[in-house]
Amino acid sequence: MKFFIRRDKNEVLVKKLLMKNILRQIVSFILPVTVLILIPLDIERNISVRNYALFFIGLIIMIIGLFLLVMTVGTFIRVGKGTLAPWSPPKKLVFVGMYGYVRNPMITGVLIVLTGESIAILSFNIFIEAIIFFIINNIFFVIYEEPNLQKRFGDEYMDYKRNVPRWIPRLKPYNTDSELINK
Length: 183
Hints:
This protein is mainly alpha-helical.
C-alpha cells in the first residue's frame, strides 16, 4: 500500500518563491565577489600588510563600502523586486534609501571597497582596477542602462535622472513629492 503526501498548492508556491528569492540573493553577490575578491587576487600577487596604519585606514574604508553595497543590494531586491544583474533587473524603479542621494550607490560601494583594498595593501594594481571598473560602468550606464531605464520606466525615470546625480551624491534625499512641489 502506497501513501501519497498531498501538498497544499500554497505550500509549493511559497517554497518556489523562497527558492527564487534565495537565488536572487546569490546572484546579487556573484558580481561584487568577482570584482572585489577574485579579480584582486588574480591581479595582485603580493598581498601583504606593509603599513599597519594604512591597513587599518583601508579596512575602515572597505567596511564603509561593504555596508553601502549590502544596504543598496538589499534595497534593490526588496523594493525593486530584482537584482543588480542585468539578466534579472528590478521590476520597479528604486529611488529610496541611498538611491535618493545618488543613482549608482552600488557601484559607489564597490569603488569604495576597491579603494580601501588598494590602500590596505598598498596596491597600485587594485587602484587601477577601480579606475577601469569606474570607466567601464560609466560607459555602460550612458550607452545601455540609462536609455533602457528610460524605456522601461518613462517619465518617472526621467524625473529621477534630472534630480539625482549619477555619481556625486545630493545633500538631501530625492523625494518625488517635494520635487514636484518645487517645479
